[in-house]
Amino acid sequence: MELFQLIDEMIDLRSFSNLWFWIMLAVAWSSASHWIVGVPNDMTARARKQPDLYMTELETLVRIHMRRRLYIMRTSGMWIVGFGCFLLSGLAVLGFWFAVEFAQAVFVIALPMSIVALINLKTAHHIEMTDAHGEPLLRALGLCRFLVQVVGVISIFVTAMWGMYQNLSIGAL
Fold this sequence. Notes:
Blueprint (H helix, E strand, L loop, with lengths): L2 H8 L8 H16 E2 L2 E2 H9 L1 H47 L3 H30 L4 H36 L3
Antiparallel strand pairs: 1-2
């Protein structure tokens, strides 16, 4: 195999047949389910097992990330939502109307990740409104993680089905 062929295969824009796309998809969903409201899952697990040692640290970190996210959304949330919708709609039009496979690949990752961002924001808002501490805080974080994982499973399934359809309909190059 020539060097240029190897380079061409490594940066191929046919995303659904490219190994790098699937690796990136796995890393994105692994990160999304690990970081709930900005707090790593291992910290939540430690606080659940030994609350007397780790609960204060968890509560402090949750409060920091919760307040930060809510402040950003309260000050510039409309701009962020508008720009995000603009990008998602642009990717959808490019990907599904003009059949740009790279835009389709970015869209099938970006749309569910925006749903995950909304779930995290809703959880942060819930924690602020209820002033959750201790076990209610752990339940809120656990429910948020469960919802993120449900969105992830559905997203990966839909992405895999769409990717197989694309690969079968386009065929080998």
